[in-house]
Amino acid sequence: MNDLASGFPGTLVSEDAGLAREFETRLRDSGTLAFRVAYSVLRHREDAEDVAQESIAKAYRCFAQLRDRERFRAWLVRTTWRMALDRRRGDRRRADREQVSNAQEAVSTEEVAAERERATLLWTAIDSLPEKLRLAIVLSGIDGHDTREVAALLRIPEGTVRSRLFLARKALAEKLQWLATHR
Amino acid sequence: MARNTPLDLPDDFDELLRRALAAEPSPEFLPRVRERISAEPQRSPWRWPLFSAASLTIACVCVISLNLLTRPVAAPPVPSAPAVRIAPHIAPAVRQDPRALDVPARAPFPVTAGLRDAVVKPAQEQPVVLVDERQRLAFRTLARMLGDGKLTDKAFAQTTPHSLDAIREQIVPVGVAPVTVSPIAVDGVLQK
Predict the structure, then answer these.
(1) What domains appear along chain A, each with residue ranges and CATH number?
(2) Does residue A163 sit in helix, strand or coil?
């Protein structure tokens, strides 16, 4: 943190040091969130880190207006999501997206294959959702956010979040059923 | 988020989604972000004051321009004319018509007191003649020059095609004969 604080340029030392401390807090609090939002779109670690880094740097440039925690996180989620979508549209490497496999535990080859197959189906279904429904279902899956937290991140009413989650789950169920029968 | 819905989602859908999104960034992620932020361009302490001053200047220019553009065009001054006053009426002398001598005198028209006063009242003031302001100034200048002896007859004669004597002849008071009004006979007047 001190490294970051000393890295803040400018002659207004006390003000910049205070901003640096606050930003460091936000960075540790929301850095992983930004990465996961980007990863949910790109599913490529390096790309997701690049996008998250860009969005955090952007947040730093206007941090004076984003000092409130909830405001900062909401702004960061929205910005990262848009930047990730832009990156994905122009990225040819999306064909090489990682398949989700956080299974560090020892599993058999068949289990890994089955897990990957299900993850592929899941992401195919999620990618087919409209953007609003997709963002709501993804944020609800990140860190176990509940409806209130998703509403705060999207800055929309909780009722709207519940409605979007319901529609997203319904669409996902139909899509997964269709994919299961047509593969 | 794990909950049973009436939909046909797999029972472990939420768990699968959570695990799919539980990716962790590399350990170098946060240090790289800090390094990136440190490389951000220096924020000048003069930036906001300069921005404020520039905004204020632009706002002032806009207000002044708007004021100049929307200012109403001043109407030309209304030419001032001297107050119009009614010259008092000079009642003409009434001469008795010899034909009406045998007619008994009739009472005059009933006139209101105000009108009668205005008509009968003798003139106390000279009639006012409406003269243009420039003409008035010219006359005053002429009178002053004549009074001061700056304008001699010779000099005046050189400025006009007529001699001053001719003008003096023209401004001799004109006498107007009084108008005679005959009263109308009782049996009327035969129009020829």
Answers:
(1) 1-91 (1.10.1740), 109-183 (1.10.10.10)
(2) helix
d(CA B37, CA A9): 10
Written as six digits, the tokens of A163 are 């409605």
CB < 8 Å to B7, chain A? 169-170, 172-173
A79 in Cβ contact with A87 (< 8 Å):
no
Q: ipTM greater than 0.90, yes or no? A: no
Task: Give residue-wise pLDDT tens across range A156-171.
Answer: 999 999 999 999 999 9
Statement: the pTM of the whole predicted model exceeds 0.80 = no
Closest chain B CA to residue A170: B7
CA nearest A142 in B: which residue? Answer: B21
> Secondary structure of B36-86 in the HEC alphabet?
HHHCCCCCCCCHHHHHHHHHHHHHHHHHHHHHHHHCCCCCCCCCCCCCCCC
**If you ran DSSP here, which 8-state letter would residue A62 be given?**
T
Q: Does A104 touch chain B (CB under 8 A)?
A: no
Structure tokens given for A14: 């006390």
Asked whether A143 and A155 are in contact (CB, 8 A), the reply is: no
pLDDT tens, position by position, A17-54: 777 788 888 888 889 999 999 999 988 889 999 999 99
What count of other Cβ atoms lies within 10 Å of the Cβ of residue B18? 18
Residues of A in contact with B24 (CB under 8 A): 32, 35
CA angle, corner A88, sides to A84 and A90, nearest 5? 120
C-beta atoms of B33 and A32 within 8 A? no
The chain A residue lying nearest B3, using CA atoms, is A169
